[in-house]
Structures are given as structure tokens and as C-alpha cells.
Amino acid sequence: MTNTNWQSYGGETTMSHLSQMLGLTVQNFVSAASGIAIAVAVSRAFARSGVDRIGNFWIDLTRATLYVLLPLAIVVALAFAALGLPQTLTGSVSATTLEGANQTIAMGPMASQEAIKQLGTNGGGFMNVNAAHPFENPSAFSNYLAIFSMLSISATVVYTFGQIAGRRRQAWALLSAMTILLVIGIGAIYWAETAGNPIHVAAGLDPALGNMEGKEVRFGQAMTALYAAVTTGLSNGGVNAMHSSLTPLGGLVPLFLIQLGEVLPGGVGSGLYGLVVFAILTVFVAGLMVGRTPEFLGKKIEAREMKLAMLAVLILPLAILGFSAVAAVIPAGLAGPTNAGPHGLTEILYAYSSAAGNNGSAFAGLSANSPWYNTTLGLAMLAGRFAYIVPVLAIAGSLARKAKVPPSSGTFPTDGPLFVGLLVGIILILGGLQFFPALALGPILEHVLMLAGQTF
Amino acid sequence: MLIAQIRPALVLLILFSLVTGLIYPLAITGVAQAAFPVQANGSLVSRDGAIVGSELIGQSFVGDGYFHPRPSAVGYDAAGSGGTNLGATSATLAEVIAARVSALSDGEAVPADAATASGSGLDPHISPAFAQVQVGRVAQARGLEAGQLAGLVARHAQQPLFGIFGEPRVNVLELNLALDDLEADSN
Fold first, then answer.
1. A single GO molecular function, which one (chain B) (predicted)?
2. Which residues in chain A (405-444) have CB-CB distances under 8 A to chain B?
3. Half-sphere exposure at residue A351, Cβ-oriented, CA atoms within 13 angstroms
4. Torsion sign, CA atoms A189, A194, A199, A200
5. Which of A106, A417, B4, B126 sees the fewest Cβ atoms within 10 Å?
6. Is A99 part of any domain?
7. Does the beta carbon of B33 lie under 8 angstroms from any beta carbon of chain A?
């Protein structure tokens, strides 16, 4: 959440670049590698039976860092540098503009950090405005490369899961469900942003370009929509436009994608285990319909796994809605939002969603740097991360001990279109029903008021 | 048991700090400086030996004789980027936009990028439409023909690569440098 108030590192000395590299870059590598290690552990739980061990974390961590992340990061970092991201140990350059004014241009070793930030879906920017900054994201190409890098590991981890568990078709089914939801999200943001803001059109803007507040000309609506959906679907949290200035419905989509648990396809590793939780819920619901014990990848899903899965799913709404509800009534919480009216509530909701979902993107209008927000956002972050991982790993451990049952005629196939459809439904309904009342009072109400021309 | 867990954690922390925290960024810096010296140093633009800015970073222009960039929430401070973060129903934003529109036109609608602040506050581009809106003012201030300037703008408008990668746009610094050259040639 610190990136609500992240300052540009401009003007810092080489020493600070050193701490940036030793602190943030290392952290970016290791947290991504931990995500991969946990995803691999979950995958093994489905592949093995009758065992109480699912691999050595340290070996997985080292392999993920040295054999996967580092080689990819080198290629992507050099490509970024070619596209215009600075990669220098100089802190800043002084320029005299054509009109004679002085401009201090901050830079640093940005390409190397941007590469691992995107590959590891960490999202923390070098500059204050993250990937909206022309140095972090100078062109359409760098924007596509950033999105490609974000997807390259978090989506392929799903395939790895299929490979390890010996069910490649299952991986494709999970990826299809992710893709369907992500494409709907991108389309919805694009539609809302090109439709623009009638209040601003009334103030004299030509509606042709759509809503341009908080956006960059080089990205326009299409690449902004793409980035906003992918960064929230993937738990990346970098932004290439100011989400707080999106139209109400355009801002609702990223908020909702975070609240769904960032499973589209989620952060490196974390998205996979989130999706496995949803898959277990789906086979359970399907099992209820036909009155049969649910199975997922040959493992029987029983009461213990179901309780753990529900526990995992309930942690996000508890952290997000619980803290938001309190913040929306106490003075310390109400002091935060910059914008009045329903947009203020959206700012609060977005902050807790982003913290609990470990996204890190922000409706940056919220001044989160107060004792109340620092403490509660930190708690939400811990709950969303660790209180979520523990039940997931407990499910993995419990499944690893179980024997595989051969599929019978009564087994519900979990790699066909029917399962994909059910999974999409379960993700939307679980997410939708839990958060819909809060969303109705925030972005949806703001959309209606915007159409009516009401300002605050 | 505990020590057996802590030892590999410490060893790996030191190893990863060296490899990913020092060797990786320094090696990338070395290769990038050798292979892409212009980009790696911030795509700086010089005129007569002096650095006038970066091709990628917008800068402030206020005089009538130059094309103006988009409004910026941070006054084109290239060491402190930022947007307004104002929402769609913000009264402040609606008032600011109305004021900018009336400064630019007599009742006609203006391109959206002309009256809204960018996300970074450092947007180096404007839409070709916003550049055309300014042609009259710049031509008058410089004593040039509007038709000649409109042609200059059209030549500097960058189109999306292959028609899909990017948006039509004009780099303001590049356009203003060309404008100064144009005048130098005609003198």
C-alpha cells in the first residue's frame, strides 16, 4: 500500500540507487519466486498420493529464481532499455527548456527493476506515477511488453500446474475461465472510458477521445483499458493511468477484479491457488446438484477441504468490507478521501481491496498516510496474504495424503466447457454477491449521478 | 529443526542479494549503456550542445509562440510526477475544465486532451487535433502563415505503428524544435 504515497526517487544519489537495487529488486525476485514455489507445492499435492511431503521450499525457491526469473528478467530488461527506459546510475539530469526554464529530469537503473517488477507481478514503480510515467512506459510497445511480461509467468504457472498434476487439459480449462473474465473486464473498461463523462462534455470537451483525465495520449483508451484490467486481474498493481480519474464504471472493473481475489490469472503463483480454491467450490456446487461426493483431479473433496476453501474465500470480504465499513463512519477514516460523494466511498473500498488483495494499485485520491489507514491497511494486507495462504496450504497438505480415485461414469469432468462455464459463474456470483451492496453505493451510484450531471 | 530452516534462508538471502541486487542490475546497466546509449541515458535532446530536455518527458511551454502541452497536475516537474486523482463527479475538476475550455475557444468543443491533466503530469504528447487548435495562435505570434504551420503539424503527427500499436499523437518538444528551425531557415 505504500505505493499510494510513493515518492519519485528523483534527485537521489547513487547510494540510494544502490539501496533501491539491493532492497526492492531483490525483494521483487524473491517474492515472485516464493509464489512460484507455493504454486508448485499445490500442484504436487494433486499429483502425489499418500504422502505427507510436497517438496523442499528452498530448492524450489532457488530454481525459480535462477532458472526462470533471472534469464527472463535479463531479456526483458534489455528490451525495455532499447525501448527507452533509462538504465543508468545517474540520479538526474538538468535541462534548460526552450523557454529557458530549468527542468530536473529524474532517472536511474529503471529497465532492470521494471523487468522484474512486471515478471513477478509486483507492480511497485520506480517513479511516483508508476507505468504512467513516460520513462517507465514510453510507448505502445513498452506497454505491450509490460503486459506480456506480467502474463508470462502468472499464466504459465497454470500450465505448469497441469503438467505436474498430469492434467494438461485441466490447465487449459482454468486458463479459458481466466481469459473469458479478463476479456470481459477489458471490454467493460474500454466501453466506459470511450463513452466519456457527460459532465465534462457539458463543460466544453469534444467527446471523440473519451475520458482523458489521468490518461496519457500515447496510450489512449484501448491500452489504458488493457493495462487497468490486466494489472488488477494479475495482482500486479502497477498503473498506466490514474485509476481514481477513470469513469465510475471504468473504475468499478479494476476494483471488482481485485475483489474477485485476483485470479485472472492472478499474481505469480497466488492466482493459481486462488483459482484452485474456486475450482474446489465449483465441483462442490456441481456435486450438490447431482448428489455425489465431489472430486477434483481424482481427489475426493470432503468436508475438511470445503471448510478450508470457504475460510479462504471469506477472508477477503471480511478484511475489505469490515475495515471499509468502519472507515466510512469514523472521523479518522472520513479524513482520507480527496473526493466527496460516492467517489469517496470508492476510494476507501479500493484502498482496502488493494491492500487485502495485495494488489498495491490505488485510487490515489485517498491520503492513506495517517495512523488509522497505515494500521488498518497493514492489517488488511496481512489478512489477505497470510490468512489466505494458510488454509490453501492446509488444503494442499490434506489432498496430498489422499489416495487417487479412478474416474468413474459419475465423475464430473473438470476440463470441459461445462466446468469452465460453472467456474466463471461461481467466481462472478461469489464475488458479486459479497461485494455488490458496497459497489452499488460507490461506483454504481456515482455513475447514475454522473449521468444526471450531479457534482460534489 | 529451527536452525535447519534458518541456515538456508540466510545463505539464500545473501546469495540472492548479490546475484539479483548487484550483479543483475549492474550487468544490465553495462550492456544497456554500450548497446543503447541514447535510450539508457534518458533519450535526451540537445540543441547547440545544450540539453533542452528529454524526448520522452513533457516540458512546460507558456509563450504564445510555442505549442503548449497538456495541463499538468505537477507543473511538468520531472522529479515528481503525478496526476490530479480527481474523480468523474468532482466539482473542482468540472470547473477547471470549463475554465481551460473558455481560455482555448469561443464556445467550440475542444479535444479532450487539451483541457484534462495527464496521469503522469509529464505527458510529452498532445493529440493532432489539439495541435491544430493552437495553429492560429502560434502563427499569429510568429508572423507565419497558418497553412504552413498546419502542414508542419501534419508532418510531425505520429501514426500508430501498423495502424494498431498506439494512438495518433504529436511530440510537443519535437514540434517546437522544428518550429524554431523553420523560423531560422526563413530568416
1. ATP binding
2. none
3. 35
4. positive
5. B4
6. no
7. yes
**Cell numbers of A234, please?**
494479475
Asked if the structure places residue A375 within a domain, the reply is yes
- B17 phi/psi in degrees, rounded to 5: -60, -40
Contact between A90 and A107 under an 8 Å Cβ cutoff? The reply is: yes
Task: Say whether B110 and A206 touch across the interface (CB within 8 A).
Answer: yes
B39 to chain A: closest CA residue: A84
Looking at residue B7, its amino acid is: R
Q: How far apart are CA A247 and CA A255, in angstroms?
A: 12
In this structure, is residue A431 part of a structural domain?
A: yes
Query: What ipTM was assigned to the predicted interfaces of this complex?
Result: 0.93
Grid coordinates representing B11 are: 545463505
Grid cell listed for B83: 496526476
- Give the separation between CA B136 and CA B132, rounded to whole angstroms: 8
Any idea where the domains of chain B sit in the sequence? Answer: 2-37, 42-186
Query: Per-10-residue mean pLDDT for chain A, 456 residues long?
Result: 31 59 83 85 78 80 92 96 94 92 92 90 77 93 92 86 88 90 94 95 94 95 93 83 94 91 74 84 88 84 90 89 93 88 93 84 76 90 84 84 82 88 91 88 96 92
**Domain enclosing residue A168, as ranges:** 7-91+105-451
The secondary structure of chain A in percent helix, strand, coil, rounded to multiples of 5, reads 65, 5, 30
Report long-range pairs for B5-9 (Cβ below 8 Å, ≥24 apart): B8/A58, B9/A58
